[in-house]
Specification:
Pfam families: Ferrochelatase (PF00762). Its EC number is 4.99.1.9. This protein has 11 helices and 8 strands. It is α/β, with parallel strands linked by helices. The longest helix is centred in the first third of the chain and has 20 residues.
Length: 321
């Protein structure tokens, strides 16, 4: 263990690269952010206006995702060090499309003298096109700088995660006053990805269904299904059916009047939740005469922080066994 960084008390010092999608910090940064997503191609004026309008609609210039992510990173660091005094954990942020980028997070760890690290993504489900991409970028930078790093690939069935999401479903069901539980359709959702992942035998769709089944079983929900949301406009087919289409279908075919949406693929309040669900899906539901409610986001929920703490600690120590 002589090659491992230790602090003044002789405990191992472990860097934790906490990765997420990223968000602009202000309206003025939206264009640069969107350009990065589009691999250096600036958006058209129409595309830029659409995205800017969405941010304006939910936050009026205040960007909750950045603050939420900052809070999650800090809460995870606190939880790791409270629960595991046998090591010192230092968390660093690495974002896919905003500063500090994933590569910046790796560089900062190395600059601080970190020699071993664990990477974890603020997304419970693995896809080669999402979590896999984060890991690839972090690993390449770590290899370049000589940093030993291992990764948490997924944690979609962690008991504390399932517990946290189940609590949210159960509390949201109480908003349908006077309505029997089996009369409320529970819709679990996640961010759609291009359909080509199916040809790659990607685990993403099945992991999402496994999470959904576990929550439904724990909450005693019998009427549920899965839907996709927030598909990109890229000219290639994305996974469906889309939530908005599902709402229209269940209204027409099942005469559904009460729908509870639980976005299991997202862990904090951001555009895909605050706009795509709270504004766009809610608007569609109202047009259809459906009472729609959404579960609270995880954000810094202690059970979610416990989930992340567990998987990071297990990965850190498994890597050295």
């Amino acid at each position: 263990m002589s090659d491992l960084t230790t602090n003044q008390t002789g405990r191992r010092k472990i860097g934790v690269l906490v990765m997420s999608y990223g968000t602009p910090e202000s309206i003025e940064q939206v264009e640069a952010y969107y350009t990065h997503i589009r691999r250096g191609n600036p958006p058209s004026p129409e595309q830029l206006k659409d995205l800017t309008d969405r941010y304006e609609a939910i936050v009026g210039g205040v960007f909750p995702l950045r603050e939420n992510t900052d809070n999650q990173v800090k809460a995870l660091e606190n939880r790791l060090n409270e629960k595991h005094p046998d090591a010192e954990f230092v968390c660093y942020q690495g974002l896919k499309h905003a500063s500090p980028l994933i590569e910046d997070g790796v560089e900062r760890m190395v600059a601080d003298g970190i020699t071993e690290a664990v990477g974890v993504v603020l997304a419970p489900h693995y896809s080669i096109m999402s979590v896999g991409g984060y890991i690839k970028r972090a690993q390449e930078k770590a290899d370049e700088l000589g940093l030993s790093i291992s990764f948490v690939r997924s944690y979609h069935l962690h008991p504390q995660l399932i517990e946290a999401l189940t609590i949210r479903v159960e509390e949201t069901l109480t908003r349908f006053q006077g309505v029997a539980k089996d009369k409320v359709l529970v819709m679990f959702t996640a961010h759609s990805l291009p359909e080509k992942i199916l040809e790659m035998k990607d685990p993403y769709p099945e992991q999402l269904l496994e999470t959904s089944r576990a929550i439904a079983a724990k909450a005693g929900v019998t009427q549920w299904q899965f839907g996709w949301q927030s598909a990109g406009q890229t000219g290639v087919p994305w996974l469906g059916p889309d939530l908005l289409d599902v709402l229209r279908t269940v209204k027409e075919e099942q005469r559904a009047e009460h729908v509870l949406v639980c976005p299991v693929g997202f862990v904090s309040d951001h555009l895909e939740v605050l706009y795509d669900l709270d504004i766009e899906a809610q608007s569609t539901a109202k047009e259809l005469g459906i009472h729609l409610e959404r579960t609270r986001s995880l954000n810094t929920d202690p059970l979610y922080m416990e989930t992340l703490s567990d998987v990071v600690y297990e990965r850190a120590f498994a890597a050295k066994e």
